Amino acid sequence: MKNTIIISSPAKINIGLWVKNKRPDNYHEIATVMQTISLADTLTLKETSEPGIKIFCDNKDVPTDSSNLIYKAAESFFKLHKLEPNLWVKLEKKIPVAAGLAGGSSNAAATLLGLSKLYEKSVILHEIMDLASTIGSDVPFVLYGGLALAHGRGEKLFFHEPPKTPYVVVIVMPNNLKVSTKWAYDNFVHSANESKARAFDKILSAYQSGDIASLKKLVFNDLESVTLKNYPEIARIKEILSSGNNGLVLMSGSGPAIFGLFKEKREALMAVKGLHGLPVDVYIEHTTKKNL
Ligand code: ATP
User: Fold this and answer.
1) Domain 4-160 is of which CATH architecture?
2) Ramachandran category for residue 112: left, alpha or beta (phi over 0 → left; psi -120 to 50 → alpha)
């Protein structure tokens, strides 16, 4: 048996987000298209002789106690397989924290996959996806990866083939700015009588066929009305990244990360020039295929 596994844990972006009604359990129904990207954390999982689950991380904003989603995922894995936990996890964080890029959910997904390999447990798709959904609504998507249309709280997934030619993805993360997903949803105000029911099939097909011009006409993120309104500096980043190019620029999830989708790397590099001197981190990445 192996005693160490190194596994990559990718971020996701939301190509559009429709916030529907609030459910009796206080969660919102949503519709969104999700896509994994090459920006990723690295997890090292090691079986040790000491009992318990210990997490080490190079980013002080990430909790290393039982509130870390890695801990929750590992705990559920050991419980399911009736194993005694004796695990050491090193998390090298590249995905900005509380950014709308599902970093924590992705780390949980990578933990489930990594532990299955470490303990030589066969990965039965419906079993591991069910376990993932008990940890968080984004966890099943990042576990499978690639491209999906999501409904429900984001856990009802319809996977699709990602575009043959990957898009170049620019991620812009304002420094020292975190947005709580709960805060964004709690402050969202519905506008009356809107019907966006058919938009997401169209968004998906424009996205798959590389038709950025149509995508730009169709796509929206409802949570921009909360986050961009409260943080004009994020609205400004969106404006700068969008100007003078044909890319699609949108906020991911509840923000504050803003992404740009481009066909060519040189277009992406031109677009980020305007951000020079601003307190932001910029990542030039690309869309990725599924993990499983
Ligand atoms: P989502 O897009 O799923 O809403 P997010 O990208 O906005 O997620 P995360 O980076 O997952 O947000 O972090 C949200 C909070 O979760 C952090 O502020 C942190 O306290 C907590 N957290 C728990 N586990 C992790 C983890 N492994 N990595 C990062 N944050 C974590």
Assistant:
1) 2-Layer Sandwich (3.30)
2) alpha
